[in-house]
Each structure stands twice: as structure tokens, then as C-alpha cells.
What does this fold into?
Amino acid sequence: MKDIVYFDLETQRSADDVGGWNRKQDMGISVAVTFSTKTGKYEIYSEERVQELIDQLIAADLVVGYNHINFDYAVLEGHTILDLESQTSNLDLLVDIEKKLEKRLKLETVASASLGLGKSADGLQALKWWAEYRRTQDPSWIMKIAEYCAFDVKVTKQVHEYGMREGKILYEDRS
It folds into this structure.
């Protein structure tokens, strides 16, 4: 059985906090979430477990995300010397959609149009939750981030499955 790993992460700091979008590697990870088709399970990673996350992504037959190549991998590369894009097999749904439509769409827009689903929050809200966690050390704030991130992974998975069913997402197996 092929292992498709759906992936998303949330950061500790915004682009403004670190001096711009060209410094994504300095944003830090508050929470990352994966879903593996091989195990049928979600996995939640803290920054302390980043190497386990990287190992899972590299071992996957395919990593599916939404803007994960240009954003999430850039954040992760602050924690590794590896070029994650070249070390992994990827389907970035944003890149695929952008090629077809010649414009960038938010995950929420795609999910709403294809599945009738919205997102549970947004990245700015996750940054506020991280700030509350740092201020209070109350782990319930981390759980809010993890729930939000896991929901984004679930939505990404459902959008991918919808695209495959409808023949709108084409992926060539490069293994």
C-alpha cells in the first residue's frame, strides 16, 4: 500500500515578526500535523519532534499539501540541512490549481467550491493562540492550534480525493 502523507503546519511567528517572507525558516513551528494513508492516523508534532516529522515526510510515497512546497517546507528548512522538496515526492494542490486556473486560490475557497466546507480558523488566529500559550503556558491553547491544523489536513485530504474522483488532479507516479 502506498503511503500518502497529508501535511500542514502552523508557525510561532508571522512574516512581519521575522523580517519578511524571505525569512520563513525563522518562523518556528507551533504545531505540525500529518495524516498517513498507510496507518490511517493523524500525527501531531511539536517543534521538539521536528526530526520525526521530516523522517515521515521523506519516507512517504507522496506528500500532499496546500502551499507546502513554498511555505511549510521553507519553515521546516530552518530545522534541517536537507532540501525537502528534492528529498520528497510532492503534490502541492495550490501549485496544481494555480497552473490550471492561472491564479492562486485559498484552501477555503477551493474547499467551499468543491466540498461545501469552510475552514475552522486561519493562520493569524493560530498565531494568537500561540501567543496565549506562551503567555499562560496553558496547553489548551496548543490543542486549539492542533485541532485547527488537523482540520486543515483533513480538508486538504478531502480536496485531493475530490480532485482525483473528478479527474481534476493528475499525479504521475514518479517512483
In short: DSSP finds eight helices and five strands in the chain. Confidence is low (pLDDT under 50) at residues 171-175.
